[in-house]
Every structure is written in C-alpha cells, then in structure tokens.
Design brief:
CATH architecture of one domain: Orthogonal Bundle
Protein name: PHD finger protein 24-like isoform X4
Largest sheet: 3 strands, mixed
InterPro entries: EF-hand-dom_pair, EF_Hand_1_Ca_BS, EF_hand_dom, KIAA1045_Zf_RING, Znf_FYVE_PHD, Znf_PHD, Znf_PHD-finger, Znf_RING/FYVE/PHD
Order of helices and strands: EEEHHHHEHHEHHHEHEHH
CATH topology of one domain: Recoverin, domain 1
Shape: globular
GO molecular function: calcium ion binding; zinc ion binding
Structural class: mainly alpha
Keywords: Calcium, Metal-binding, Zinc, Zinc-finger
Length: about 290
C-alpha cells in the first residue's frame, strides 16, 4: 500500500519490522480544563518551511499557531488544489490547519497505525491505493458471512454504503489512505481515556469552544441546559466552517444529560474538536454523532 501524506502523496509513517502489543492506556489521573483559567496562546513567528523571520505575508494555523510564508506555502503545494484552496481560509473566522495538525494519525501509537495499514490493504483488493465502494461492500459481505454465518441483508448493505459515504469526504467514490486514516484515527481516539484526548487539545482550540460556551452561559456558573449546549455546538461548528447535513445539530451533542457543566462538555467533545482540524468546510466532515438508542 502506498500510504499518503495529509493530502495524498508520500508515506507518513516508517514502522519497525516488529509489531508491538497494543497499548491500552488507563485514565490514571483525572485531567480537566479549567473554566476560568485563560488558555496561554503563543505564536511562533518563524516560518515552518524556510525557518525565516521575514515580515512578508504569512498564513497561521488555527490549531497550533505556527506560521508559514505565503510564498513558501505556494511553492511547496503548487499543483495541490485542495491544499491551496484550504489556505485561502487562513484569514477567515474558520481558519486553516497546517499539515502537521491535520494529520490525526500522529495521535496514534505504532501498533494502531500498523494495524490500520494492514486493514487498508485487506480492503484494497486490487492494490490501487484506493478503496472503491465495490471493494468495501464485498469485504463487508465476506466479513458478515465469516463472522455471523449469514448473508448481508439489503438494509445492512445500505447502512454500509452510507458509512462508506461518510468516510469518502472528497465524494469521488473511493476512499484514499488519508480519508481512511483520518476516520479510523477518530475511531481510535474515541476508545482512548478522556484525559489523554483532553491533553491533545491546543490552547487555541480550547479558547474557541470555551468563548462560545461562556457566551451562552447566562448563569455564569459554567453550566448549560441541553438547548443551550446544542446552540454552542451549532455556533462552534459554524465558526470552523462546518454544517449539519440535515440541519440537526442536536446529534453532535454527545452527552444525554439535561444539565451540562463545562467539565462534562469539554471531556465529551474533545474528540469532536480534534476531528474538526481537517481542512474541510460545509456538510462533509468527520465529526462524531450521538448513536441512536
């Protein structure tokens, strides 16, 4: 398999030959993000590409705050229409995410990454470095027959096709390595301890969501009701350029509580915030939704 970079070319991981046992971290210490503690925002004034300090035009990552010269970026990503289009949002409220922050695979360990590479190869039966919907459905049918001993139903097949469409963010009818890695990285992050995921949030990400939370906290006690919390999710999603495909933002609120304190809100939605790092706008995104009961 030819593993892609955050936009599609080159390899992003170099793995040793020996596979480690999976690391299952424990939530050994309760970590939280204080409601009234101002995040410490820093800015790296050097260009991440040329390392220069020139005062020429720069674009800044909305996640980490690092900068790169516009000219340096254009030279490096010349011909990459997706990257060039994303960089145009750097000066908007939604902002732009640098390639390092957009690569969610960096938040996984070596074992998890190796397992994903193997799984991608299993789906990609013709080794074309892309998984077509036909390959995906065929693999799922075989898996259903092997694990459950029954043929996949038409209803189940439709569900699998819908799932495929959710991963195929580009909408080109195929899943590339980057789309697969991103979707599965979010899946793995959902299984990790919440304290671990919280620690991956940057001060800029925390400030954006907390400012919106505070603007809706009419009691000033750091607590919202469900309606207010859904409003926060909608305003936050819109602030990073994302929309709900069907206009329903309540499904992005991942807690069932009627009263939602800040600590619960940020712990339950840390993965959602990380999933929004991807340079997509509109209705096509990787944000987790609440499972139907």
């Amino acid at each position: 398999m030819a593993c892609g970079s955050s936009v599609g070319g080159g390899k992003v991981f170099s793995l040793s030959g020996q596979r480690r046992k999976p690391y299952v971290p424990r939530d050994e210490e309760y970590y939280t993000i204080m409601y009234d503690e101002e995040p410490r925002i820093t800015t790296d004034v050097t260009c991440t590409i040329c390392k220069g300090f020139e005062r020429s035009a720069k674009i800044q990552c909305r996640v980490c705050g690092r900068n790169c010269h516009t000219n340096c970026f254009e030279r490096r990503y010349r011909g990459d229409e997706q990257a060039m289009e994303a960089s145009k949002r750097a000066d908007t409220e939604a902002g732009w995410t640098c390639a390092d922050c957009e690569n969610l695979g960096q938040l996984l360990d070596e074992y998890e990454t190796s397992m994903l590479m193997d799984k991608f190869d299993e789906y990609d039966s013709d080794q074309s470095t892309q998984i077509t919907v036909e390959e995906y459905i065929e693999f799922q049918k075989d898996l259903c027959l092997e694990s459950e001993g029954i043929e996949m139903s038409k209803e189940r097949e439709e569900e699998e096709r819908e799932l495929f469409g959710n991963i195929d963010i580009s909408g080109d009818g195929a899943i590339n390595w980057w789309e697969f890695l991103t979707a599965k990285s979010i899946h793995f992050l959902n299984k990790k301890p919440k304290s671990y995921v919280l620690k991956q949030l940057t001060p800029r990400e925390i400030k954006r969501i907390r400012d919106i939370f505070k603007a809706n906290d009419m009691s000033y006690h750091g607590v919202l009701d469900r309606e207010e919390a859904v409003k926060v999710m909608k305003e936050w999603m819109n602030s990073v350029g994302l929309e709900s495909p069907d206009g329903d933002y309540s499904k992005y609120l991942l807690t069932s509580s009627c009263v939602i304190p800040w600590d619960t809100f940020i712990r339950e939605h840390a993965v959602t915030i990380i999933a929004a790092r991807i340079n997509n706008v509109g209705k096509q995104h990787f944000l987790p939704v609440k499972r139907k009961s």
